[in-house]
Amino acid sequence: MDPRLRHAALIALLALAIGCESSSAPPRRASAPSPRPPSGTTVEELPPEALAAEPAPPPIAEPTAAEAAQAAIGPAPRLIQRAPAPDSEYASDEPVDARRYVYRVTLVVPETLGADRSDLAIPAAELFIDVSAERLRARFVGPGWPVEAGSEVRVRGDSPGSYVFDREGGRSLPPAALAEWFEGGPRRTGPPLSVRRDPAHTEREIPGGLICALLAEWSGDLRENVMRRCDGRAPMAFRVGFWRAERTADVPVELPRRALRADESDPPPPVPITRSRAFLEPAALSRVPPMDRPPRDLPERDPGAPAEGLDFVNESEARVVVTAEGVALGWVDAGASGLFVGLRPGAYRIAALRPLGAVVIRPRVVVVPGRTVLGARRSRDDEL
Q1: Neighbours of 299 (CB within 10 A)
Q2: Which pTM was predicted?
Q3: Bridge pairing between strands 169-173 and 79-80
Q4: pLDDT tens-digit series, residues 246-287
């Protein structure tokens, strides 16, 4: 064949493949859980800059043609914005007394969304906090968060608001806006917040009181309302919405002031850019049992349903956590979809809640493999 004709034929075939890909793209699988630090590593062995270093998970689904083209170009650069006021007071190497706290956090799925009949361990989530009397840095670690592992929040004691680093880069948030950041959209109602004080530490000079400033920003409350509950000390436990935290480590450290600087300086490593993420691997999700006695009038199979798993489409205004039979599967951003692979064929009660606690889908029966949609209007109708 003439080389020119062969070249033209290849171009035509490539264009046809890309056209088919864009017109009927399959649902995207929710990203795999982010790995945790190696087991056996102690908090004392982890320097502050290493606590947020979460390596990107390997790809587990074939990319679409558009994503393949973007991968060839390279990832878009992160946008890191300057803070309104530079934190020059914490720009030196002068040592400062600080405390390193670790909280193990679990999502408590309300019983109204289904009774968990599996033998699965709750997905791990940890909050690593370095705090002095005047500054705080908190890092989200582990696969059990509805935000990407490696995201970081910085708080100043002399001004409300926060500075966050996430998949989009870095930016300042006004007071109480951290709640909307965690929700991935506008916040409807304030989540219930509870704090358990530490009866052992009575000395006021031990750093930790700013943890309650973080909780105030996180829950959308006024700082003075929440910090009064801590009485100047780090809490032993706290609860924000359905997230329950227990303190597992408390280590005194001496850090250079710049290691606690609360502006855009010294950003943490970039985190993966995803729109949905599974809390559990497919092998673990296969241990979630379907309904014992599904209703006789099961819904008809959606023609757009995937060949395997649950395709959850979130057309609401905020991020949601998806559950099946009382087990949290993972999260899906507003305007995105997530394919949760691993569920065995059968009927499941599928529900969804906002990250800070509002239930937006009461349990509905979905046959898996299957597809369900949370629409903007439907989310208001279903909310409890």
Answers
A1: 13
A2: 0.80
A3: parallel
A4: 999 999 999 999 999 999 999 999 998 899 999 999 999 999
